[in-house]
UniProtKB/TrEMBL annotation:
Transmembrane segments: none annotated. It comes from Handroanthus impetiginosus. This is Mitochondrial transcription termination factor, mTERF. One of its GO terms (biological process) is DNA-templated transcription termination. GO terms for molecular function: nucleic acid binding. InterPro entries: MTERF, MTERF_sf. Belongs to the mTERF family. Keywords: Transcription, Transcription regulation, Transcription termination, Transit peptide.
Amino acid sequence: MVTKLPSILVADPEKTVLPKLQFFHSIGIPAHVLAHMTSRSPVILRCSLENRIIPFYDYLKNLLQSDKKVITVFKHAVRPFSHIALQRLPPNVAILKKYGVNESHISSLMVHYPESMMMRSDELVKLVNKVTELDIDTSKSIFIHAIHVLHMTSKSAWEARKRAYHKWGWSESDIHMAFSIHPLCMLLSEKKIMSVMEFFVNEMNCEAKAIARRPTVLIYSLEKRIMPRCQVVKLLMVKGLIKGSYNLLSLLAMTDKTFSERFVTKYDNVPGLLDVHHGKLSLRDLGTDSSELAKVKLV
């Protein structure tokens, strides 16, 4: 806090600092959250309580209808009490409503991506138009995720991620389709894109373009979820213990408990299965026949 705002050391403790701490405590902000807020953005303690903090709180409380959600905004927003926050929020809310975004989705955008609600109104209009050009329905929740991703992504980063997908044969329409299904796929680093695509295509025999229709699978952790789960299922299929085709997204989306019950616990007598599930061994480590592995595909 002192490193970011040395002048906090000479702020009047009774008149400047204490009233803010008391107010935040009064609306239910836990001590550890308040510590996080003030250490990350100590200017909060130098803002006017009457002219900035309370009006901003009142506006958010009216918009979100929940102290818990307001606290979440305070916790995650980088500049919640800057002078531009109250100037930009009302017109931005009006713009989103004009384009058909319902109040619940506006509230969700405010809670989860508060910085995206504090951009300039002309910038917001450009992003809304860009998202609608991609045929993403403004009435759907996916719309707010698309706005957030575009706001957070520079042109150079966007192009770099497109190039990564192009290396796997994705066309422009494939990329647009993937973005419209799960926008967060365009927030992934190039390294993450390449490593996950390489595993799906080269290790799991998936078609690269098929991943564009299920971009959600790219978001999961490669080491902690994708590799262990896919290899467990593939091992069981090679051994003939499970048959049929398995949907990649369904396998990755199910809870740890469900996956373990369906594919691990009941087959725990299979040599090496538990180590594969825990990420300690790969199928190659087990000496599994590569020709047999190549026959197994996830869809």
